[in-house]
Amino acid sequence: MDDPAIRYNDTVMDHFLNPRNAGPLPNANAVGRAGSGDCGDLVELSLRVEDDRVVEARFRAFGCVAAIAGASVTTELVRGRTVAEALALTNTDVVHALGGLPPRKVECSILAEEAIRAALGAYLERNRPADRLPTDAPAAENPPAAPDQP
Ligand code: FES
Q1: Which domain holds residue 32?
Q2: Non-local CB neighbours of 81 within 8 Å, separated by 6+ positions
Q3: Among the four residues 5, 46, 80, 135, which has the most C-beta atoms within 10 Å?
Q4: From 3, 6, 41, 109, mutation site for ligand 1 pocket: most ligand atoms within 8 A of C-beta
């Protein structure tokens, strides 16, 4: 439960009370979760990536005001960005987009950053080009050269 002495700005409260893009994304191809071991809060980010660009983003969260507002604004921040641009987002960008967070709540925005990395890290792992696969692939995929013909 949030400390009633903590004051949030209007932007944070708007994202908390009217979360953008909340709920599951049925056609997501990049899903990541991040949780806090300290408080048990959880953020799940579901993305649809097409042609290296995030075209849809939705979230589900169980957490404090800052965690929910951070996840909400993150769905707006990642949409339209390339995968590399989205991966470059940090919790500082999330806090800035929210117009600031109380100092004690800044670390709650890290869940959004970690959820982006989890979602897109797994996406890149599944979609990396075949020429970047490890070179120690099984022998069947790298048959020895045929002997020279006399
Ligand atoms: S108190 Fe857990 S994320 Fe904010």
Answers
A1: 10-127
A2: 53, 54, 89
A3: 46
A4: 41
